[in-house]
């Protein structure tokens, strides 16, 4: 089926289960060329100026939530509320801000992307977050997912392997008042052991399989949502129960590979 036809079919008939064609259309981070990474302080005024040229962003966020997220089955009120509040256009480079609320992933520089709004919503809802939770995010990007998480939990610890992106995200999150987010530049395969255990872990890039260090860092009754695989990827949820780890397959996906320290991108 042609991708556009598949999307139209899903929009007119909100899915009870999502098919492979639909999700492959949702997630193609490699298909868009990457703009250069910006300096958050130098470009803050430019960002605000560019924002003024966009359609009213509050209305754009509401359309995003209603048409792309609620219509596809996301129902958690707190998740929907966070997505209505976070200004997604502030977490992408100025050149792609007019597309910030569209139904697609967007390039953020250095070969990385910001996930499609629906994917952010789906993974966030799957974590089943509570207000007192402490969450580890692997793959900060420019900080959009961390900003959404920060409105839902007590503390967010976010790791990014690409230093330039991580530093920009840290500065931007601070400027925008997300005071409960901490950012570290480092190898996501190792996690953040001194801050563990976490109530939930979210991974926004794909390792071949679940990193053992991350499994060791979420607490009893904790949850982890992570895409795994090489050529065929599957989004899974792990739960730590009294009987051990439970592994649940959620849906097929397509993410950029999770990069280990040995392949770290230069500054």
The whole-number mean of residue pLDDT values reads 83
Low-confidence region ranges: 1-53
Major β-sheet strand ordering? 5-4-3-6-7-8-9
- CATH architectural label: 3-Layer(aba) Sandwich
**Number of structurally distinct domains:** 1
Radius of gyration, in Å, reads: 17 Å
**Which structural class is indicated by helix and strand composition?**
alpha/beta
Measured as a percent range, the helix fraction is 25-40%
From the spread of the alpha carbons, the general shape counts as globular
The fraction of residues assigned to DSSP E strands is 15-25%
Number of helices, where a helix is a run of at least 4 consecutive DSSP H or I residues:
9
Total count of strands: 9
Helix and strand sequence:
HHHHHEEHEHEHEEHEEE
Please write the CATH class name.
Alpha Beta
CATH superfamily: Vaccinia Virus protein VP39
Biggest sheet, in brief?
7 strands, mixed
CATH T-level fold name: Rossmann fold
Distance between the termini: 42 Å
How is this structure best described in words?
The longest helix is centred in the N-terminal third of the chain and has 14 residues, at about 40-55. The strands form 2 sheets. This protein has a 7-stranded mixed β-sheet with strand order 5-4-3-6-7-8-9. The protein contains 9 helices and 9 strands. It is α/β, with parallel strands linked by helices. It has one domain (about 5-265): Vaccinia Virus protein VP39 (Rossmann fold), CATH 3.40.50.
């Amino acid at each position: 089926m042609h991708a556009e036809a598949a999307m139209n079919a899903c929009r007119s008939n909100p899915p009870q289960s999502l098919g492979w064609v639909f999700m492959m259309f949702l997630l193609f981070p490699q298909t868009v060329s990457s703009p250069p990474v910006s300096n958050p302080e130098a470009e803050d005024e430019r960002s605000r100026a560019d924002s003024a040229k966009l359609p009213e962003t509050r209305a754009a966020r509401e359309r995003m939530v209603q048409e792309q997220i609620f219509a596809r089955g996301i129902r958690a009120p707190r998740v929907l509320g966070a997505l209505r509040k976070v200004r997604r256009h502030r977490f992408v480079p100025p050149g792609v801000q007019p597309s910030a609320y569209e139904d697609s992933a967007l390039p953020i520089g250095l070969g990385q992307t910001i996930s499609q709004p629906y994917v952010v919503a789906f993974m966030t809802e799957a974590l089943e977050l509570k207000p007192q939770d402490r969450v580890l995010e692997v793959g900060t990007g420019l900080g959009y997912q961390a900003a959404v998480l920060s409105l839902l939990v007590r503390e967010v610890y976010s790791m990014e392997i690409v230093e330039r992106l991580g530093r920009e995200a840290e500065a931007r999150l601070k400027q925008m008042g997300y005071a409960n987010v901490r950012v570290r530049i480092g190898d996501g395969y190792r996690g953040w052991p001194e801050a563990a255990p976490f109530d939930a872990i979210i991974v926004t890039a794909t390792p071949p399989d679940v990193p053992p260090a991350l499994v060791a860092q979420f607490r009893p009754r904790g949850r982890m949502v992570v895409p795994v695989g090489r050529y065929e990827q599957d989004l899974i949820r792990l739960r730590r129960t009294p009987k051990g780890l439970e592994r649940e397959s959620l849906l097929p996906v397509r993410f950029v590979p999770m990069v280990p320290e040995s392949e770290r991108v230069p500054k």
